[in-house]
Amino acid sequence: MRLLWWTLAVVSVSTLGIVLSQNRTLDPVQNLSLTVSAPLETGLRDLAEPVADFFEGLLNRGDLKRENERLREEVERLKSQAAIGEDAQRRVQELEQALDVTKSRSDEEFVAADIIAPDPSGVKRALAINRGSADGLDEGMVVLSRSGSLVGTISRVYDDFAWLRLTTDPNSAVNVVILSDEYEESAEARGIAAGDLRGALSLEIVPIEALIAEGDAVTTSGLGGNYPRGLLLGSVKSVESKPQGLFKKITVEPAADLGALDTVLVITSFLPARLAGP
Question: Same domain for 8 and 89?
Answer without folding.
Answer: yes
